[in-house]
Each structure stands twice: as C-alpha cells, then as structure tokens.
Amino acid sequence: MLVRNVDNYDNRKYYFQVGEEKHWNDISAFNAFCKDRTQKFEFVINSPNLYTCSWNKPPKTIQQYEDDFARYLCATYDDICIMYSGGTDSHAIVEAFMRIGARNIKITHQIGHTKAPGWERHREIVEIRHNIQRYRQWWDDHGWQYIELDHTSFDRDAYVKSLLDVRQEDNFTFGVDRLHGLSLEVLVQDENIVKHHMYKKPAGVQKGCALSGNEKPYVYAVNGMWVWRATSNQFPINGGWMDPEYDYIYFFMDNAMPEIQVAKAHAKIDEIENICRKNATKIQEGEDWNSYAHPYYRQINHAMGYRGICNLLDGIFSKGVSSAFKNDYNKFVKINNLDTVYTDMKNFFRNNIDSDFLNANGHPHGINTRDIPIRPISSDVLG
Fold first, then answer.
1. Which of 103, 154, 279, 368 has its CA 20 to 30 A from that of 175?
2. How is 138-166 classified by DSSP, letter by letter?
3. Mean per-residue pLDDT for 186-202?
4. pLDDT confidence tier of residue 179, bands split at 50, 70 and 90
5. Greater model confidence, 319 or 260
6. Extended beta strands in 189-312, E state
C-alpha cells in the first residue's frame, strides 16, 4: 500500500506565492503583487508530494488507490468525518469507505444554503433526501453516523464582518462567482462546522480528520502535451479556521496519496482522446474539457470514478442554481440590504487590485498553479 506518512498536517490547503512571501487568500496576494508586478506570482496546492511524485500512468486503478487511502485513514484516525453533499466528489469518498467495509464513519450533510422562503419545496431537496435513504440501512449497519446540519439563521452583521475580515485573514478565497459572487454558502458552512464537531476536536478523540472532495483534475492541451493545472477559483474555502488538532484533508489530492489525482488525470485524458477518436475530431489547444458546460462533462466524470448520489447531482444541473432558489436568494439579499455590501466589496477590489485581474463582474479572477506535464497528446488526435 503506497501511502506516505504525513506528520503535522497544515489545514491551510493552499497558498499564494508572491515573490518570497506566502499569502493565504487571493485578495492579499493580488494586493501585494500589484505593488510590484515583477515578482513571482503563483497559486500553490499545499501538498508538496503532488508536485514531486511521478506523473506517469500509475500501475493501479483509481478505485485501488482510493481504497488504499481509505484504509490508511481508518488505521490512522479514530474519528473520520466526510463533508458530504451527495455530489460527484463527496459521494466518491463515501463509496470508497463503503467498498472497504469501514465502520463508524461520520457524514455531515447540509442541504440548501439559507432559510430562504420555500427552500424545502425545491425538487432537488426532495430528490437528494430520497436517494440518501437508499444508503441509510448500510450506514446504520456499519455504525456510521449521518448528521443533517440545521440551517443557519442569518446574522447580517456577522456576515458583513466576515467579508471585511477575510481581506486579511486566511480563511477563504474570493475569486469565485456564485450569483453575486460573494456567497452565503461560505458563511453558512463555516457556522455549521463551528456548531458541530469538525471545528473543534471532539472530546475523547485521539486523532480526527474531516474529508473534503477537492478536487477533480483539470487538464489542458499545451504545445502538444497534456498538462495538469489548478486554479484558485476551484477552491473557495481554505482550512485555516479549523482546529489544528483536527486534520482537514483533500481526499483526491492529499500529500499522503497524490497518486489518486495522477490516476484520475490519466483516466480523464484517456476518455477525452477516446471521445475524439469516436467523433473523428482533434484535440485543439484552448478547448476547455473541464467546463461544467462541456457536452461530455458527465461522461468524463464517470471515467474518473465520479458519480453523484442521484441523477440531479451527477450532472451539470447541480452546478447551476434553480430559478426558485434564485428568486428566494434575491429576496433574501434585498431584505438584508446585501447589495450595498457587495457594491462596497467591488469598490474595494477596484481600489486595491489592478483592473486586468478583475473579471467582468468586478471580482478577482483565478490564479493558476504552475503546469505539471503529464504526457504527450496521442498523435492520432493531435490537432
């Protein structure tokens, strides 16, 4: 079992390298870089083995690596909590632990974002809850604990303060657009985690961890090569706010088992090239095979071992927002006078970050990691 022992986990899962300094959120990093644009500027996943391991096609299957890692975690931790949405990432983690027959796993699941009117009537909520019931008997038989988190009552003053504080702190990155671009999801998830065991190590636990389903490999065609590259806007929540005695782990790119990410990247490339062969098309540099909107998004996910708990969470619909939720959300924003807050944040961005680093909505765009070469594009599909 090829798993590296990793001591002294750093719950801050990424950072921004600006010159010789590390920054723990994108606002601070952009601000520092814009003062001297000759400096090095890079987004770094805080998993050094990801950058130094072999990126050759691994000898094992994706499931074998996932199962090995799940066994390692069961042997290492006496308290394991999966942060679960039922989507393709977190459900793949659950299935890995189920395959090995793991016992006494905790699942924390929050459906929806706020107490916006009518949220419980949305068909996605009904479908998710219905499908979770298919797994409950197995979970109960194996001593798993399923916790559906309460919806957080909204504290406007606390939310506004969190937006202001995060400009300097290491909790989040704001280069993510969700409706207004500054999401209530961040606050709600943070508050709920504080209320439950993941923020502070539970009493009686010797060693515990929370597992997050970050992140699918993003691959790009560059000068005849396939390369791996991550962008900061894939990772909205850093882990600096978690108890340092409770490890926060990105299951698919952890420092102890980066081969999961490598194996998934190769599977993704294989599937993309097979799609091109079937359709008699070529790989074109600049085509985004990673986009939710790509017509083969679901098929490529399946090739990497990702499946949601239900059809709704297995496709691109879950990446959007239903019209009912948008209406509720817009009412929520209006009632709490949040448009003014969002405008103030945009003004802050405009006054502190150069305009070419802001997107069309006035928010910071993503920062890339350095590329990791994977393998040449197959000659028969090279455009």
1. 154
2. HHHHTT-EEEEPPPPPP-HHHHHHHHHHT
3. 48
4. very low
5. 260
6. 208-212, 219-222, 225-228, 246-250
Average confidence (pLDDT) over 164-187: 41
- Per-residue confidence band for 192, with pLDDT thresholds at 50, 70 and 90: very low
Rounded CA gap, 183 and 379, in Å? 43
Query: Among residues 116, 54, 113, 106, which one has the least CA distance to residue 82?
Result: 106
Say what the pLDDT of residue 156 is. 63
Question: DSSP string of 23-87?
Answer: ESSHHHHHHHHHT-TTS-EEEEES-HHHHHS--SPPSS-HHHHHHHHHHHHHHH-SEEEEEE-SS
Q: Which helix (H) or strand (E) holds 381?
A: none
Please give the C-alpha separations between residue 195 and each of 108, 163, 203, 320, in angstroms, as whole numbers: 12, 20, 14, 28
What is the residue extent of each domain of the chain?
59-221+241-338
pLDDT band with cut points at 50, 70 and 90 for residue 163 = low
